[in-house]
Design a protein that fits this description.
This is Carboxymuconolactone decarboxylase family protein. Residues 229-321 form the ABM domain. Strands 5, 7, 8, 11, 12, 13, 14 and 15 form an eight-stranded antiparallel sheet that branches. It contains 16 helices and 16 strands. The model is unreliable at 1-8 and 337-341 (pLDDT under 50). The chain is of the alpha+beta class and 476 residues long.
Length: 476
């Protein structure tokens, strides 16, 4: 359960290359190949070399297994192929030398491990090395000799990769602590490790972020927001409206949970012996998420259409007794019935289309495009563009202008030098030629608009810098 809204913050101790290495390592270890595709594009756009990424993924087989490593390599190859077809030429970086010609690779690996740990390393390693000599040999000869022997990544980069991967995996705290020590010996700072917890929060979970915090002696962060809202609605429905009410309630609950990240649960139930006695468990990540929910089209529609059906209503605010168990309950529910987390909710009557991979490098978050017109002689290209919560495009302009018509959810629009606007269903935005602007979804809602390209034969896009976190946060 991701009831805690995790805000993206500007990191200062970790540079962009280190942030990207950490993100791809954590996602590889967790097996999240869908998110990996986005991060790989960000890595390449940010200047990481192809061979640096390859080397990190090869190293990760030793920490999260061949299946996860090979899956990530497969995704990376697909990303490179897609970028090549678009004419994007990414830098290769240092050459990867496969063959290690050292005569005594065990000794080579032992010395590398001594340098990383800054402690003498016996042969064989006490404990596991005496019990399973082959494991000791593989560790020294292959991992710390063959893999760490490549200079495509520095020791510090390699330890960042390892720490990030282990931080994403439950049940490996002893190894994580050991590599935190090695990372510090290679130059990784306490401030960088603190910032790494935020990356784990963002890409994996607050639970795993807290595992890393505990290992580095930092205060664990709450899994749930302090102002989280839990409420039970006790509703009596006039019997003649019961079936109609159930249909409307089911539709509103599903839309709210799917579209609004801050709505953790709207779970309707009814008494078996008295079906017109309805109980709804409502959980909101924070008070602001509840206030936003009250202003959404789906809630307003529910309220207006069911008002005559309700005989009595009582709202009972609750306090959570045990947040840890609460998180575990939602985790169990996820395991009992796996939902498609990538499923796009119903947003409008217009088709959502396919993921906007051609222009993904100009967006933060996922967007989708569905062309609506095909008759070129009409000269009026129209497409439905959909943004996931938090997604927005870069600052940009159109030499021939553009018209936006909002058809679903809630979005943001801002022109350079002007205040941002919240835009909702029915709003029309007329964008003049060469006006620099950006638009996208709010942090808490999916968003769809029709995009009408004006003067298409001479209209060209000019893509500029991404919208900063500060600008986006202020716009919300």
């Amino acid at each position: 359960m991701n009831a805690q809204t995790i805000e993206k913050v500007t990191l200062k101790a970790l540079n962009s290359h280190q942030q990207n290495l950490a993100a791809l390592s954590a996602l590889t270890a967790s097996g999240n190949t869908e998110e990996l595709k986005i991060v790989f594009n960000a890595c390449l756009d940010g200047g990481l070399a192809i061979n640096e990424i390859k080397e990190a993924l090869v190293q990760l087989y030793a920490y999260c297994g061949f299946p996860r490593s090979l899956n990530a390599l497969g995704v990376f190859k697909t990303v490179l192929d897609e970028r090549a077809t678009k004419g994007i030429k990414d830098k290769e970086g240092k050459a990867i030398v496969v063959e290690n010609t050292t005569s005594d690779k065990y000794e080579q690996g032992r010395k590398v491990l001594e340098r990383l740990t800054q402690t003498p390393q016996k042969k064989p390693a006490p404990g596991f090395g005496e019990f399973a000599p082959r494991a000791d040999s593989f560790l020294k000869e292959h991992l710390f000799a063959d893999i760490f022997g490549s200079d495509v990544l520095s020791y510090s980069q390699r330890e960042l990769v390892t720490i990030s991967a282990l931080a994403a995996m439950p049940g490996v705290e002893p190894q994580l602590k050991a590599h935190i020590g090695m990372g510090k010996n290679t130059g990784i700072t306490d401030d960088q490790l603190k910032e790494l917890t935020l990356i784990i929060d963002q890409y994996i979970s607050r639970v795993q972020g807290n595992v890393l915090r505990k290992c580095i002696g930092e205060k664990e962060q709450p899994l749930l927001a302090n102002d989280m809202m839990v409420r039970i609605s006790e509703i009596e429905i006039i019997p003649e409206f019961l079936e109609q009410y159930r249909t409307i309630l089911k539709e509103e609950a599903a839309a709210s949970v799917n579209i609004e990240p801050g709505v953790v649960a709207i779970f309707p139930m009814f008494q078996r012996e008295a079906p017109n006695q309805v109980r709804i468990v409502e959980i909101y990540a924070e008070k602001s998420a509840y206030e936003h929910h009250l202003a959404t089209p789906q809630f307003k529609k529910y309220k207006e259409t069911t008002l005559k059906m309700v005989k009595s209503l009582k709202l009972v605010d609750m306090d959570v007794l045990d947040t840890q168990t609460m998180v575990a309950i939602f985790g169990k529910l996820k395991n009992i019935k796996m939902e498609d987390k990538n499923k796009i909710p119903f947003i409008s009557e217009f088709p959502t289309g396919n993921e906007n991979t051609d222009f993904a490098r100009y967006f933060i978050g996922k967007s989708y495009v569905a062309p609506l017109t095909s008759h070129k002689e009409l000269n009026v290209p129209i497409a439905n563009v959909t943004f996931e919560p938090g997604c927005r495009n870069n600052w940009h302009s159109h030499s021939g202008g553009q018209i936006l018509i909002v058809v679903g959810g809630e979005g943001l629009y801002q022109e350079r030098g002007k205040k941002p606007r919240h835009i909702r269903v029915g709003d029309i935005v007329e964008i003049g030629p060469n006006v620099e602007h950006w638009h996208g979804a709010t942090a808490n809602s999916w968003f769809s608009h029709l995009a009408i390209m004006c003067n298409p034969q001479a209209n060209e896009n000019k893509w500029l810098e991404p919208v900063s976190e500060d600008v986006y946060k202020e716009a919300n």
